UniProtKB/TrEMBL annotation:
Name by which UniProt lists this protein: Beta-lactamase/transpeptidase-like protein
Domain of life: Bacteria
Native species: Rhizobium etli bv. mimosae str. IE4771
Ranges where the Beta-lactamase-related domain occurs: 166-431
Length: 473
């Protein structure tokens, strides 16, 4: 009996030692997967608390934990409102990661915990917040009576999709119907994820109109000057055909998650990536490409203050996108791949702007042909992606769904989408929290909206919108 008791005590002691050693290991050397999870939690909670005004625990449960890896259910967050900081820890103790709120510039992930460096990277005051108006959209926020037929479409949960948060339908330049999920409204800023890429491309297009950058520019980064990467052109980056290696697999610790949640300088990883193909020869969807484009256009603006203000001054203010918050990394580069928050009304304004070929209130803001590039497929993507950070066929060609052939798309992680149909004068914005494994396809919603819509008048395309921009030599 004594032997059994001694054996049990020894076993208990061994288990305690294993637990203590494991805890010490997690505390001192947390695996990258846990750091990514905590980084993701801290960043998403920070942005939704300080930009969207949502409850931190609701965001943690609904946005972070519900649709993701089971390990995320063990993440705990704390919010320091006085200092604008969010801390996330696995099981409340391990793999600490942080996010910092920087006012009008939104939140940034601070994976190294260096809040001083993150604050100093964006020391300038952002532009003053624009006032909203009660005028009819798009001049203001008021919306007329809803189209009953389209409202019935949006009320169909199968068509709206799981966890829909906002749908806005714009026809002939006016919002004709909108719908919102529980807890969300036309005043709630929502993340676009990779829809941000197309907005980032449009910001670069504004610089093209001023002659500060062109599709054919090469020798784009200082570290590329002495090797074959110097041949990469702006057009190659816009079309996701740079030839740079980049792993966009969100199911593990990949280049994209390492860039977003482990590296305070998001430019570093894609800028130092090796070549895996000649420029223009291979399509590889890459969030790193969009971050590179951000750094390139920011450097072309001229100085840091002007660069931080440029999205607002060049695009958001002219379009009346009063809610738009474009976030930067911890070292001061706009996260052009992922982090733009805006209300569904403001996302719809951007869609209407593209529908009008980059013209707003009679003023051309994008060069003639630039939106045409957004609608022109690249050969390397097999006709799926375009020359301007947009999609023609995100998950099946338009004809396969019975959609007009001129349809093009902005799409983003977890079910964000914007369909632009020039021939029908139609923009459909759909935002939510709908992971891809649920199998939802926004094409079904668009098809139903088109079926419920009357024939439109003359499409709102300006001269030059159909011209294909040649981005290859």
């Amino acid at each position: 009996m004594r032997f059994v008791l001694r054996a049990l005590k020894a076993l208990a002691l061994l288990l305690v030692l294993i637990v203590v050693a494991g805890a010490a290991w997690l505390f001192a050397w947390p695996p990258e997967l846990l750091r990514v999870g905590d980084g993701y939690a801290a960043k998403i909670v920070c942005s939704n608390v300080f930009i969207a005004g949502r409850n931190a625990e609701d965001v943690l449960e609904d946005d972070v934990q519900a649709p993701g890896n089971p390990l995320l259910r063990l993440v705990r967050v704390s919010v320091d409102r006085d200092n604008g900081r969010v801390t996330a820890r696995f099981m409340g103790f391990f793999a600490s990661s942080y996010a910092l709120y920087r006012g009008g510039l939104g939140c940034t992930s601070v994976p190294d915990g260096d809040f001083e460096a993150a604050a100093n990277a964006a020391p300038f005051d952002p532009p003053a917040k624009m006032e909203t108006s009660d005028a009819l959209w798009p001049q203001g926020e008021s919306v007329g009576d809803a189209d009953a037929k389209i409202a019935a479409v949006l009320a169909d949960a199968r068509l709206a999709g799981p966890a829909m948060r906002a749908i806005v339908v714009v026809r002939d330049g006016r919002i004709v119907t909108e719908a919102y999920g529980p807890g969300f409204s036309s005043k709630t800023p929502l993340i676009g994820w990779s829809m941000t890429k197309t907005v980032n491309a449009a910001i670069l297009g504004r610089l093209m109109l001023d002659g500060k950058i062109s599709f054919d520019d090469d020798h784009l980064m200082a570290q590329w000057k002495d090797d074959q990467r110097a041949r990469i052109k702006v057009s190659d980056l816009l079309g996701m055909e740079s030839g740079l290696a980049f792993n966009e697999d969100y199911g593990s610790v990949a280049d994209v998650t390492r860039m977003l949640y482990l590296d305070p300088d998001m430019v570093s990883l894609p800028a130092n990536a090796p070549m895996e193909a000649a420029p223009g020869q291979r399509f590889r969807y890459s969030s790193g490409t969009a971050v590179l484009l951000s750094r390139i256009w920011m450097d072309r603006v001229g100085n840091a203050q002007a660069a931080f203000s440029y999205p607002h001054d060049a695009l958001f203010s002219p379009l009346g996108m009063t809610s738009a918050v474009f976030e930067l990394d911890a070292r001061g580069t706009f996260t052009g791949s992922s982090y733009l928050y805006a209300t569904a009304h403001d996302w719809a304004r951007f869609g209407q702007f593209l529908l009008q070929d980059g013209v707003w209130n009679g003023r051309r803001l994008l060069p003639e042909g630039f939106v045409g590039a957004m609608r022109t497929p690249t050969a390397a993507s097999n006709g799926r992606y375009t020359q301007g950070q947009a999609w023609l066929a995100p998950s099946g060609r338009s004809a396969a769904f019975g959609l007009p052939e001129d349809t093009f798309w902005l799409t983003g992680h977890d079910g964000q989408s914007m369909a632009i149909v020039p021939s029908a004068n139609l923009v459909v914005v759909r935002l939510g929290l709908t992971p891809s494994w649920l199998g939802y396809q926004p094409q079904t919603l668009l098809k139903a909206v088109l079926a419920a819509s009357p024939q439109s008048g003359v499409p709102q395309q300006q001269a030059g919108s159909e011209r294909q921009v040649q981005t290859q030599p």
